[in-house]
Amino acid sequence: MSAGAAEPQWFGQPRGLTILFLTQMWEIFSYYGMRALLVYYMTKQLLMGQQQASLVYGLYAATVYFTPILGGVVSDRWLGRRRAVIIGGAVMAIGHFLMASESLFYLALAAIALGNGLFLPSLPSQVDGLYARRDPRRGSAYNIYYVGINLGGLLAPLVCGTLGELYGWHYGFGAAGIGMLLGLAVYVLGGRYLPAGERRGPVEAAGRAGDAGEAGEAGMALRLRVLLAIGLCVMLFRGAYEQVGNTIALWADTGIDRSLGALTIPMTWFQALNPLLVIALTPVLVAHWSRQARDGREPGSARKMALGAGGVALAYLLLAAVSAGTAAGQTSWLWLALFFLVLTAGELFILPVGLGLFARLAPSRHRATTVAAWFFAAFGGNLLAGLLGMAWTALGPAAFFALMAAVAGSAGVLLGLLDGSARRIEAEARPAADAAVARV
């Protein structure tokens, strides 16, 4: 009997998944709530030019995903994942509240980035410990977890964005800080449902035995090389994808007609479309992949990711065509909504799939560090997105969107070339894990 079947459950999953889901939801609410306002705050309140604001945005977003590389090591070697989540979340909350002062703007960004370094790799790395190695629910656990991420992302622009636009930027930033505190409260109160952490239970012990049973140093080296290559492809992909909070946000403000009858749609609300569509589309995709898995037809992880990058390229081609054929300022908001629909469908094939791949293939004693390596791709991708965003004014919307389509499409081609190698390392890891469980 699997460990998951013997444990109390909520919604057919271990109770700990709900705790992690809600903790991550509120953390994402705080992060994306602040991010929904950031580029507007810099250009409208701090009076930065577009190029400087895009660069600062990209550097900040990149740093948010760089600090987890160090934070994962600190979590694995010294603090442990539970203490890392609590300390990191507290520092992030302080950073959000520091945004209330314009003079502390850069200090606030630094505090959020540093706290995130401890929080980000330590929370999702606990998901795998909720399941026995052969539990059939493991495959969809990260897609369910990803819904929690996007539920927070949906609420963030609607709450923080609306408060910031209508009542003042600092009200929006304050709401983001409150969201982070709520996430910490959920995590602390629900701690008894989470993996034992540094106490090596049966599932964790199986992971250690599995590490020893893998195909030696050569097999592990091949695994790490493939993961590195996939991470670099995702880094390139994110250079295009991360424009959502940067140049796409600027275009939503000035490049489209936001009229809806007698009302004007707030510019920050468009950033809620992506997480809303993630929540709507995830059950459909999970059911589709489950049927394919039962029939032995489910695509490999790298192939799914290649398809996702191609979908995002199509989304940008759509915007390029619309921008080229429409007078400035006259593009209907419906085209932007259609863009988010296509982009989100592509995103679901690549980002949660990649996170799950890195978590499944991580050595158990370095799980947070390996998950942090996944976020290194987000670091490089956000940095690239900031640099690419500086070309927005010079190129104009149509040419810029065409460039983003080329960037995402290139990542898709490279991921497709990695499909065979990724399939092999996943196939090799599966029997080693099963044998480890049998020995425990």
From TrEMBL:
Its main location: membrane. It is a multi-pass membrane protein. Gene3D superfamilies: MFS general substrate transporter like domains. It comes from the Bacteria. InterPro entries: Dipep/tripep_permease, MFS_dom, MFS_trans_sf, MFS_Transporters, POT_fam, PTR2_symporter_CS. The chain crosses the membrane at residues 19-43, 55-75, 82-99, 144-164, 170-190, 224-241, 261-286, 306-327, 333-359, 371-392, 398-418. Residues 16-423 form the Major facilitator superfamily (MFS) profile domain. Keywords: Cell membrane, Membrane, Peptide transport, Protein transport, Transmembrane, Transmembrane helix, Transport. It is found in: Cell membrane; Membrane. NCBIfam families: yjdL_sub1_fam (TIGR00924). Belongs to the major facilitator superfamily. Proton-dependent oligopeptide transporter (POT/PTR) (TC 2.A.17) family. PANTHER family: PROTON-DEPENDENT OLIGOPEPTIDE FAMILY TRANSPORT PROTEIN, RESISTANCE PROTEIN MDTM, PUTATIVE-RELATED-RELATED. This is Peptide MFS transporter.
